[in-house]
Amino acid sequence: MKCAILERVHRTLRERLYRAFTYRDSYKYYDILPELVHSYNHSIHRAHGFEPTKLTTDDEPELYKCLYHSNVDPQFSFTAGDIVRLSKARKTFRKGYLPGWTEETFRIYKRYPMIL
After folding, report:
1. Handedness of CA 29, 31, 34, 38 (dihedral sign)
2. Which residues of 8-34 are buried (b: 16+ CB within 10 A; e: fewer)?
3. pLDDT in 10s for each residue of the chain, 116 residues
4. Which DSSP string do the residues of 45-73 spell out, in sequence order?
5. CA of 94: how far to CAs of 87, 89, 91, 101, 102, in Å?
6. Which of 23, 55, 87, 97 has its CA 20 to 30 A from that of 77?
């Protein structure tokens, strides 16, 4: 799982914990933790509009479409037959005066459609 997703989960759980701490005027969390996790798992998530407990492997294509589908058609910069150079990996302490592109040139032979 990606760190950004886990960090978002942690943030949400922390917000709910502190909301409960304020309401109860206590920092004891072990007695409310099961209720908190149950509440999180039965909440509709804004990113995909589903409750995590109700998702199954049958819902995977629809979930993927909700998360990653864009209504905007991708704009391609290159077409078959174009001559290109590849960008070299940019590292933190790479010297700025060194070339950022390969010396070799490549011809685009075929472009595959994007899978959505």
Report:
1. negative
2. eeeeeeeebeeebeeeeeeeeeeebee
3. 678 888 988 999 999 999 999 899 999 989 999 999 999 999 998 888 889 899 888 988 888 888 887 766 667 788 899 999 998 877 777 777 778 888 899 999 988 877 65
4. PTTTS--GGG--GGGHHHHHHHHH--SSP
5. 13, 9, 5, 13, 15
6. 97
